[in-house]
Specification:
Number of strands: 2
Radius of gyration: 20 Å
Strand content: 5-15%
Length: 66
């Protein structure tokens, strides 16, 4: 994440040569995709619960209906 932040900072300053900016942008997109995948995996783990039989199942919040 810190590497991605550094890339964004450099690109926002705008004082890098075009070719380097393109390379930084590509690297930033790769890092962004990697971080997004990690976040999605963590979210999927957090929204699952263990039922009475010890099996994982998706968490479905109550709609206020019984």
């Amino acid at each position: 994440m810190s590497e991605l932040e550094e890339i964004v900072r450099k690109l926002e300053l705008g004082d890098v040569p075009l070719e380097e900016a393109i390379d930084l942008y590509k690297k930033g997109m790769e890092l962004s995709h990697y971080c997004h995948q990690k976040l999605s995996n963590a979210e999927n783990q957090l929204i699952s619960i263990v039922n009475d039989q010890g099996e994982k199942q998706a968490f479905e919040p109550a709609n206020g209906e019984d």
